[in-house]
Amino acid sequence: MDTNDLGFNSKLIHGGGFKDPLGSATVPIYQTSTFRFDSADHGAACFSGESNGYIYTRIGNPTISALEAQVALLEKGFGGIATSSGMGAVNTIYFTLLGEGAHVVSSAAVYGPSRVVLEQQYSRFGVKASFVNTANIEEIRNAIRPETKLLYIETPSNPTIDITDLRACCELAHQHGIPVAIDNTFCSPYLQRPIEMGADIVLHSMTKFINGHADIVAGMIVAKDEAMYKKLRANMVNIGFNMDPHQAYLVIRGLKTLGIRIERAQANAIKIADYLENHPKVEWVRFPGLKSHPQYELACKQMDGPGCMISFELKGGLKAGKVLMDNVKLAVLAVSLGGVETLIQHPASMTHSKVSAEGKEKAGITDGLVRFSVGIEDLSDIMHDLDQALAKI
Ligand SMILES: *Cc1c(COP(=O)(O)O)cnc(C)c1O
To answer: What is the pLDDT of residue 362?
Structure first.
């Protein structure tokens, strides 16, 4: 059976082509650090690449390979590279593409550590970074320099939910011979497949939607072509950003339900966004499924659905935010996203409490901003929870 021809949900169950030699119906955990060679010649062939036999788990492992093949299939790339965390994926990409004197153009509203590591660590090796609003293509065009080696984009952005036009960005970058990497964590391949729109590299924090059960930290890179895949893989292996087989097993298990989890959470999110938009204590709501989103048309064009992440601004700023956080009963007060449970977060009093007023303004963090990762609970329970907590403000 060629799993390439299957629909997305069938690929989640059967994709990747793993076939256990002992007939296990699911992918077993190959909990081993090393692999036995049949002979000196076999060992030599494994090292030379003549044989694709396994050598050592940091380099490759059957459980991890099964997951890599499956996510690569979903993202329509050449191959997957599993990493210990999302940041392991980010750093493998930076380390591979950014040498001495290199310049990167990045979305300003990227995941915090993806920016911090460029500013505080790669800068020590002469790497320069421009952080721009990639939702405005002109800002990217103006930031590109002769030494630009990477365009790095996150869309929708966090927590501002701005949408970057992936097709336009890839076209612009490729005119300058610059590879494009997309952090696709917020959408997962169920809602957005950047390689189809021209991206060279896709990465995930699989901690979020792909695993979906908030019980593991993991990352993945998918490269569009073989040359890029080989370069990235070599660095992942040599730095030691590799995944563990048990971690891979859990992600494979979580991945099977990606489609039904997102469908349900997204259906909840659409109703909740509408409810919030009409609530007297809410100033505004940012959700790609609302016609009021400034890039509603673009979201419809490049995403297969609006997703499960809602940002909204409370009237009453910091104080209102804290009251809401202290009064929700069902929603879990926690960072992260993309799990089966609804999570709520107030950046001004939590993740960004130590950021300067200017820094918060630049990142689009207002005092009443709330980020809501909608889970798969019953809609009536999530609504009731929000309703009673909003009433306390
Ligand atoms: C969480 C996250 C990361 C980092 O992933 P970890 O698995 O926590 O290392 C990167 N990008 C985005 C968009 C994230 O949400």
So the answer is: 77
